[in-house]
């Protein structure tokens, strides 16, 4: 689960649900189940529902935020550099 929020709301946590990854619905929406907890007690599951365009915006924002960070060994393939002929590197 994600780290605690700062300030008065620090006892609230929202984070991904282990074993329940991102899925695509039949209507094309992307759904990421999130767990909501307060003071360590699980309260609810709340789906984050995104359109494809919203998913792309989130992906771009995360790529920008992670840009200077080296990819960890267990990172998904999209975070690892790919070498193309001629030495060009893309992510």
UniProtKB/TrEMBL annotation:
Residues 70-91 are annotated as: Disordered. It comes from the Bacteria. This is Uncharacterized protein.
